[in-house]
Design a protein that fits this description.
This protein is an alpha+beta fold. The protein contains 13 helices and eight strands. The longest helix has 19 residues.
Length: 312
């Protein structure tokens, strides 16, 4: 059974404490490598994409863990890193295979130094219950040891990946290894329910789908729909839509740095820039410019994640 840790919204003092850990000098990180991969056709309904990162970080980088509607499996092949958690104000070492649930707010900041080599499986919103039989609420706002949550075979997966990479040195071979692991789960995977389809509709529309329409499509009452959604994803459908829209806004800005925040707010569907700023402070504890700055100190392979395109 996953050991669940409920994380609360970061305070201004907590963010300030984390910032003290962040080096202010220019980061020296080389060599760097980053690549994204599409899932196979058989896994497209469960996996959004794969992100590979391989870099050496000479001076410690502190990178915020953002609000994000999509769960992830993070497989570390080199040095293990630490996270500063706002719920406790302490730092803990992360497992080599980490299952991350949907994040309704900013739960932690990563502390990265040394050899950072990871393959990250970016799941679709409903992947945890369908592939692993885990309601999303079990891991909401939480990161847990994947070997505990989905079985010890994930430990063997990491070792197999290390052996394969030592021979080929090709990130694509790591992806194929993980795909074989996930495809074995498809045999016993569950069927998508109306609540799962509603979450996917919100995800595809960048949070813009009207909730009343989704309720009608589900065939449930509003009350039942909200309760079922909360059980499956650990947040209300309204909060889920807000998190998805936040991710879309960040992706717009990271993909098009010259785009003004006013233009970002308009394209992302906020009422205005002030509305967007309030949403950022609610979800990640900082305004758009401050939060972007906290991401931009990192080398390129660390910047865009987890704001991947939902077109995968």
């Amino acid at each position: 059974m996953c050991r669940r840790l409920r994380l609360r919204e970061p305070s201004a003092r907590g963010i300030a404490m984390a910032r003290l850990l962040q080096t202010t000098s220019e980061q020296r990180a080389a060599p760097t490598a980053g690549a994204t991969f599409l899932p196979s056709d058989s896994l497209r309904d469960h996996v959004q994409g794969y992100l590979y990162r391989d870099l050496f970080v000479a001076e410690e980088i502190v990178r915020p863990v953002s609000a994000d509607a999509n769960p992830m499996l993070v497989l570390s092949l080199a040095d293990r890193h630490e996270a500063f958690e706002y719920s406790t104000g302490t730092v803990r070492q992360l497992p080599e295979a980490m299952l991350v649930g949907s994040q309704s707010r900013r739960p932690a900041d990563l502390r990265i130094v040394g050899h950072h080599q990871v393959l990250i499986v970016c799941f679709q919103p409903a992947a945890l219950p369908l592939l692993f039989g885990l309601p999303g609420s079990v891991l909401a706002d939480t990161a847990a040891d994947a070997a505990v949550c989905i079985g010890p075979d994930v430990t063997e997966l990491v070792e197999q990946m290390r052996r394969i990479f030592a021979v080929t040195g090709e990130p694509r071979d790591l992806v194929q290894c993980v795909e074989r692991f996930l495809e074995a789960r498809l045999i016993e995977s569950g069927q998508a329910e109306p609540i799962h389809r509603a979450a996917m509709a919100l995800h595809r529309s960048n949070g813009a789908t009207e909730l009343g329409h989704l309720v009608r499509e589900s065939g449930h009452s509003v009350r039942h729909f909200n309760r079922a959604f909360l059980k499956q994803f650990g947040m209300t459908p309204k909060r889920f839509a807000r998190v998805v829209r936040f991710g879309y806004a960040m992706r717009l800005k990271l993909d098009r740095p010259l785009l003004t925040w006013a233009a970002v707010s308009q394209q992302a569907g906020y009422y205005d820039q002030n509305h967007m700023a309030k949403e950022f402070k609610t979800l990640v504890g900082e305004g758009p410019s401050s939060f972007l700055k906290s991401i931009s100190v990192a080398p390129p392979p660390l910047r865009a994640f987890p704001y991947m395109s939902n077109s995968y």
